[in-house]
Design goal:
Mean pLDDT: 94
Number of domains: 3
CATH architecture of the largest domain: 3-Layer(aba) Sandwich
Number of helices: 11
Distance between the termini: 65 Å
CATH class of the largest domain: Alpha Beta
Oligomer: single chain
Largest sheet: 10 strands, mixed
Strand order of the largest sheet: 7-6-5-4-12-1-13-14-2-15
Bound molecules: 2-acetamido-2-deoxy-6-O-sulfo-beta-D-galactopyranose, calcium ion
Strand content: 15-25%
Helix content: 25-40%
CATH topology of the largest domain: Alkaline Phosphatase, subunit A
Shape: globular
Low-confidence stretches: 1-9, 33-39
Length: 526
Amino acid sequence: MNFSTQKVIRTLRLKNDLVTVFTFSLAVISLLPTFVFAQKKQKPNVIFIYADDLGYGDLSSYGATKINTPNIDRLAKEGLKFTNAHATSATCTPSRYALMTGNYPWRKKGTGVLPGNASLIIPVDKITLPQVFQNAGYKTGAVGKWHLGLGSPSREINWNKPLLVGPNEVGFDYAYFFPATSDRVPTVFVENHNIVGYEKEDPIEVNYQEKVGKEPTGLENPELLKLRSSPDHGHNNTIVNGIGRIGFMSGGKQARWADEEIAHVFLSKAEQFIEENQKNPFFLYFSLNDIHVPRMPSTEFKGKSKMGLRGDVILQMDWTVGEILKKLEALNLDENTLIIFSSDNGPVLDDGYADKAVELAVGHKPAGVLRGGKYSAFEGGTRVPWLARWPEMIKPGTVSNALICQIDLLSSFAHFFQQKIEDRDATDSFALMDALTGKEKTGRESLVNQGGALSFTKGNWKYIEPNNGESFNKLTGTELGNDPKPQLYDLSKDIGEKHNLAGQYPNKVKMMADELAKIKEAGGSR
Ligand code: NG6
Ligand code: CA
């Protein structure tokens, strides 16, 4: 190699080095904003507030005039209000099963309203909503109503041992909850695996078939009740805190809750979880007891609504949401926290207790413009309020009529965190983050809902499968939407589902029935 060749090579090398240094610097400079952004921006906290049995017409932001819900309305004013958002089902357990698993509940037996001693119905080997957050580095908490069972199938729950296989085993780092509903035994709170206030000298027994222990029941001693049970509904087994429950229990006297305290206890646990996790991103599933029966608000809310106990617990629920907002503001977390507020199914007035909900609801329409309510295949059963506030991402005062469902949260967040979901998991859940934050105004193309009968909504059309169940439930006063003949409604002109157009559009009926049949057969596809 002669001198000049060496020189050329050296120059080239130098040039190369310079190019490398230059390229490297460029890369650093271009990455810098991302780095700084990542340093500054924490992933958003997410709080899902799940009301129980709250109807489409129960909030002032959804048109209620007899009741005022300023705190929840703030979510609408400062965020996004959906007009076509759904729970999958018209009762609690199936809606929550869908929320947690991303699977339609009617695909699996045993996902109906559970007794308080049922075993866990969420599979422990499939992805769940809280696990999506755990995988993204979040701390996850469940506070409130559970109603998805505890313990392994085929094994009876021993209430005197740690309660294994529950919220902690399906993705919640922390859980403070009651097992079923507040009208079902056992009437105790559970923190992770342990009953709060449990004393081993007073063991707990629970039975849904026959009486256990010697305590009075609503049936034998109605004079002991402070809130009478409605005739024929049941709710007349063991009396706890002056209220007859579904199911019998004995023992655990110290551990039993006072209904008037439930909202306060859950709120304080939710606040504690937020406070303890303020430094890291968190997901809080805040599953309220309000406004489910027995409606027994704390003293400061009694009589406040002038609409009876049902109105009073709506105000209590609204106050709870206000307290959460205050907490976030105090901790300087409210800008980067996404709060979603929704309900697990539509409204009901008489659901088992003589609390005058029917008599005092004069002029108030719990389902608003919708027909039916809790238990119903009509829109009132599953179309629910859904508000979302996230100042950093959601434009205040947005309204969206996108068709969305709680079942979509799982895939939406998985997609948001760039997680891959196994094909066999969350098969009915769609990734719709842009719709959920109001950036896009279209959501799902179609949705299957579950009252007694299944319904299929696509665009403006809704088809309800023929069903031989009773059309009207006398106990709750609900139109159930069951009809042995197919039903077809044009929701764009007839949101109240008054005019069955099935006779007029037989081809449309067939198309809708066929599509529903395909979804049922498919076992779910994303
Ligand atoms: C029903 C109860 C009702 C309520 C519901 C569950 C009777 C007659 N009615 O079986 O009071 O507890 O179950 O509500 O027992 S849910 O919101 O949790 O689905
Ligand atoms: Ca419910």
